[in-house]
Design brief:
heterodimer, A: mainly beta, four-stranded antiparallel sheet, 34 strands, B: 112 residues, mainly alpha, 5 helices, 61% helix
């Protein structure tokens, strides 16, 4: 009797206790792709704070953040959009917005969250605070068909750019009036755009093409020039290798005068001259690159690879264009994320159920966190970057 | 000698059964576990972890019903030209692909 009274008192006290004040700038989310859960982590002490469950099919999940870095918007494969409270460690709001989706973006002013859908093909735009549907943009083309939408990115002036996989088109939706989107369409941009990126200044939208060698570039400062082809026929005459995992262009790498892109179907990272978008070289790497990500200062490039070479990560020096390290962190390295100023990199080793943390200067292993089938890692500093 | 149609059917059924048994007999329990993992996670990056589809089509039994087994096996082994579906031969044996296709047609037990 006395014992249970004591227990009740303890519970009451715990209930009343004010949680310690804290910021969110060193927080992040790690996707546990097989369990439909996410971990809230803190990079200052490299620790896990909480697990939030019930997010559905996270087999290809990505995350964007509110401008105050308090809320994460998680885009699931099954069409779910979940708003996670990074401080309360709970789901703040959740909507099933389509049958099948592939990522999304948050607007420059932080008020709109847009989701790219495969089924039915199109983009839906929600109010970031309430997740109320504000605009529905079906990706219709041809005779009433709907294309899968890929490479949805935010850019300046509350615009979103995205690509139509089946139609070979790039669309730019102006959402300054969120309920009445104004859409510019660019047709015939190339076969099967499969992913895209926006440069950090919001100026260039580049879609990778699965159906042919080359990329489609739209200069959003000079849209009247239309879509330009770059790296056209970079593999002319060579048979591309089978692709067991699509390269990801988001989180692309930039340093000084160069941009670095994962080649599709080749064991190469492509170097592009940013002044004229011409090929400036290629770097031979261990396998087919999936992500080629620059450390925030641009000095290093970290590259992971498609199955069956996905136990390996390579580090490239962007001054010499040489591979300076080949690391084997664990089985199936799916994703990498730098801490905001780049002193650490976090790597998901999916099949070893572990996230590994490395010092990017010494390349030493700093520690690991146990995570169930980890895939994407997303730190809150993404809130303040265009095109992520 | 002309064989009775029923006989032919029986032979076909028996050899099909034999082939199925053979396929699973040649895929060890350990390897079956690896293949299931590959199916959910690597095939799942295009077809969805629950196999409901993504950039690639759904692989649920109702979607595969009525499609010839040989066509499905050939798609996995040789890929599908003009689409992102890569050939898996070289990474998977014919027996392993037969085992996977049979499993997909039945329904994957651990796909939620």
């Amino acid at each position: 009797m006395r014992r249970s009274l004591l227990a009740i008192c303890v519970l009451l006290l715990a209930g009343c206790a004010t949680p310690a004040l804290r910021g969110t700038g060193d927080l992040g989310l790690i996707i546990e792709r097989a369990d439909g859960s996410v971990l809230i982590v803190e990079s200052t002490h490299r620790k896990m704070l909480a697990r939030v469950e019930g997010l559905g099919d996270l087999s290809h999940a990505s995350v964007v953040y509110s401008r105050d870095e308090r809320y994460a918007y998680v885009f699931g494969r099954d069409g779910a959009l979940t708003k996670v409270d990074m401080l309360r460690h709970s789901i703040a709001k959740r909507v099933m917005q389509s049958g099948n989706s592939i990522g999304g973006a948050i607007s420059q002013d932080g008020r709109l969250v847009a989701v790219a859908n495969y089924e039915p093909g199109g983009v839906k735009v929600f109010a970031a605070d309430t997740l109320e549907l504000l605009a529905d943009i079906p990706a219709s083309y041809g005779d009433g068909k709907y294309s899968k939408v890929v490479g949805l990115e935010d850019t300046t002036d509350n615009r979103f750019a995205f690509s139509l996989y089946d139609a070979g088109e790039i669309w730019v939706a102006d959402l300054r009036d969120a309920r009445n989107p104004v859409i510019e369409k660019y047709r015939g941009i190339g076969r099967q755009p499969y992913d895209a990126l926006v440069s950090m200044d919001g100026r260039h939208y580049i879609a990778g093409l699965f159906g042919e060698d080359g990329l489609a570039l739209l200069d959003l400062w000079r849209p009247e020039r239309g879509v330009q082809r770059i790296l056209d026929n970079y593999g002319r005459g060579e048979q591309p290798l089978p692709v067991y995992k699509m390269p990801h262009l988001e989180g692309w790498a930039l340093s000084e005068e160069h941009a670095y892109l994962p080649a599709i179907g080749r064991h190469e990272v492509l170097i592009v001259d940013r002044r004229n978008w011409q090929e400036a070289g290629r770097i031979a790497v261990h396998g087919q690159p999936v992500f080629a990500m620059a450390r925030p200062d641009g000095r290093q490039l970290w590259v992971n690879f498609a199955h069956p070479h996905n136990d390996t990560v390579q580090v490239i020096d962007t001054v010499t264009h040489k591979v300076i390290a080949t690391l084997r962190p664990g089985k199936a390295v799916l994703h990498m994320e730098f801490t905001p100023r780049g002193e650490q990199i976090w790597l998901s080793a999916r099949d070893d159920n572990r996230v590994d943390i490395y010092d990017t200067r010494t390349l030493q292993h700093l520690g690991s966190l146990p995570v169930r089938s980890p895939s994407g890692i997303f730190f809150t500093a993404r809130a303040h970057r265009i095109g992520l | 000698m002309r064989r009775h149609p029923l006989m032919l059917l029986l032979t076909a059924v028996l050899s099909l059964a034999a082939a199925t048994t053979q396929a699973s007999a040649e895929v060890s329990t350990e390897r079956q576990r690896e293949l299931l993992h590959l199916l959910r996670h690597d095939c799942g990056s295009c077809h969805g972890m629950t196999l409901k589809g993504g950039l690639g089509p759904t692989l649920l039994p109702q979607a595969l019903a009525g499609k010839p087994t040989e066509t499905l096996e050939a798609t996995v082994l040789y890929g599908r030209a003009g689409t992102p579906m890569p050939p898996w031969r070289g990474l998977l044996t014919e027996e392993e692909v037969a085992w996977l296709v049979a499993l997909l047609m039945k329904g994957v037990p651990d796909a939620p």
